[in-house]
Amino acid sequence: METPNLKLRLQELRDRLAINLVERETPVRLLLLAALAGEHVLFIGPPGTAKSELARRLRTAFRDASFVERLLTRHSTPEELLGPLSVKALEEDRFVRQVRGYLPSASIAFVDQIFQANSAVLNSLLTLINEREFEMGVQRVRVPLICLVGASTDLPEGDELRALNDRFLLRCYLPRLSDEGFARLLDLPEERPAPPPEPLRLTREEVRRIQAEARKVQVPDEVRTLLKGLRRYLEEKEVEVSDRRWHRIRSLLQVSAYTNGREAVSIWDAWLLQHCVWQTPDQREMVFEWYQKHLGADTSVDPVRFSRLVSAWEKTYEDERDSTWQARDRAGKLYYRDFLGKPTTESKGTRHKHNEDGEPLYLLPPDQRNRSNDGKGYTVSELMQFFGYHYYFARGDEFKAYLANEDNWLMEEVNFEPIVEPARYSRKHIEARCEETAQLLEQADSMLATIDAEISELEILIEGHLWISPGFTPIAQRNLLETREAVEDLKRRIQAIHEGFAALPKLTE
Q1: Degrees (nearest 5) of the Cα angle 208, 6, 69?
Q2: Helix/strand/coil (H, E, C) string of 297-363?
Q3: Is 79:87 a contact under the CB 8 Å cutoff?
Q4: What backbone phi and psi angles, to 5 degrees, belong to 58?
Q5: For strand 170-173 and strand 41-44, is the pairing parallel, antiparallel, or unpaired?
Q6: What are phi and psi of 453, to 5 degrees?
Q7: What is the separation of C-alpha 292 from the centre of its chain, rounded to a whole number of angstroms?
Q8: Which CATH architecture does the domain made up of 3-204 adopt?
Q9: Cα–Cα dist 134/132, whole Å
Q10: CA 10, CA 275: separation in Å to the nearest integer?
Q11: Is residue 130 a contact partner of residue 248, using CB atoms and an 8 Å limit?
Q12: What is the pLDDT of residues 170-186, one digit of tens each?
């Protein structure tokens, strides 16, 4: 692979393109990468933010590259873009356009206010951008287009224009300069910087070779996991990204990895995603925040899903820890608690019934038909009245003896309360739980190892990356450390679950 020398060459070329451009490092990088990947770039922003200057500078990155610049209005005609018809050819019944100096002859093209395109020019633009062809009568002719830079002050409206917008894989919003940038602007020299020297510039054959070699670059599981997660996130946020676009994003990441001298796409190449999937500029920040939260993802574990998994295991442990069952004696019979609070294997018992006020209830003498008063019984006072009217004794020792005789009590049958104790588990069950949580601990350790490796190589990987904007290193480091802290917390929770399962009550075997 020639990528070490290629990377140094691209780095110098990139930096030369950015000379005297204030706060435009990211657009320069996106432009050059897009051209290498055979993609197109869209700039959105107010007038006077260097959109056309960026496109003109991209032309100087290539040898013998022709440049065409056009401004669209709602009244633009296909001839303004594709060239006028040849009168001489028409006289010979042939449909031929004079394309020199028009879009079909351009290697690098800049179309300002591109969303002013009307239906008359829209199809020609779509074909030229996507297939790199244009219609010449009944024929389709290939064009030498490397990259088309579109610009607009406004976002597109309408389905037809959204289709045109989708043809631009990379999108970048260009705001006006900050106060600091404005101060730097006032100090810029008047003369334009010299273009890159000829040996530094790229040939069309080199671009084709870069694209061919990039197709061999591997996309590892950790990047695939990240892309799948972002796709789900964007669907939840109702941000539409076509399948065709995801396929082109993969190719862009491969070119990014190859030009950085690697044989596999890195999680850091995915920094570019924020510039590939937004429909409105505010969505870029949303995607970038999502990306930062997912830095340090393990090869096979999504941190968000892993956190949910740990929570599910915590619930399982709490359920088993708090689970109870009915106690048994040595013979396996169920234990209940009797009236005195003592264990018994009997599930029911009878006792002297009392009314709601706590008074004991009694039966009438056996010679009475309704001894129980239809199950309601009699209190002592009610019994005394009955005895005083029907019998010679209503007080004294004989009455006391009557009350003391259990045969004269109104009895009730009561279900004894089961004796409950913490559930006990078999040795195999506890061992299985401990083995499963031990695997979670291994996954957490693997995630921590991945994060630690990325932290140790962070500065080299990011500062030396051709396409990541300057200043991302402290952001990445902060987010990696936050992710590490979160994984450490998950590991502590898993360890507590693991120890909890090991301490569950065991069955006597």
Answers
A1: 55
A2: CCCCCCHHHHHHHHHHHHHHHHHHHHCEEECECCCCCECEECCCCCEECCCEEEEECECCCCCECEC
A3: no
A4: -60, -35
A5: parallel
A6: -65, -40
A7: 10
A8: 3-Layer(aba) Sandwich (3.40)
A9: 7
A10: 20
A11: no
A12: 999 999 999 999 999 99
CA distance 501 to 316: 10
Asked whether 43 and 54 are in contact (CB, 8 A), the reply is yes
Helix (H, G, I), strand (E, B) or coil at 426: coil
Q: 39-59, pLDDT tens digit by residue?
A: 999 999 999 999 999 999 999
- Give how far Cα 18 sits from Cα of 32, 396, 428, 471, Å: 11, 119, 66, 16
pLDDT classification of 457: cutoffs 50, 70, 90: confident
Q: Which residue, 295, 308, 306, 290, is CA-closest to 481?
A: 295
Residue among 294, 298, 226 at smallest CA distance from 443 = 298
Closest CA to 31 of 52, 49, 46: 52
Specify the residue for token string 């999504």: 302
| 52-76: b (≥16 Cβ within 10 Å) or e | bebbbbbbbbbeebbbbbbebeeeb
The pTM of this model reads 0.72
Element (H, E) at 151: strand 147-152
Amino acid (one-letter) located at 310: V
> How many angstroms separate the Cα of 357 from the Cα of each of 51, 354, 383?
93, 8, 16
For the chain, the structural domain boundaries read 3-204, 215-294, 303-323+423-502, 336-421
